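Hi R.,

Here's the chain you asked about this morning:
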Amino acid sequence: MFAVDVGEGKIKRIDKDGKVTNILQGLNSVVGLLIEENGTFYIATWGDGTVHQFNSEKKS
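And the predicted structure, written out as tokens:
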């Protein structure tokens, strides 16, 4: 499972055992999150009209 922490500007992964891992940080006002089957994340942020792309497989 993935969660958006709006207050800290982070995207977090929560494993089945409850372990929480920050996978992205430094995001401002996240208002949308889409995750494709291939591991690509699309993160929409408020105010700047930007959709950020991140591929979790490539760690980029």
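The chain has a mean pLDDT of 89.

Let me know if you need anything else.
M.
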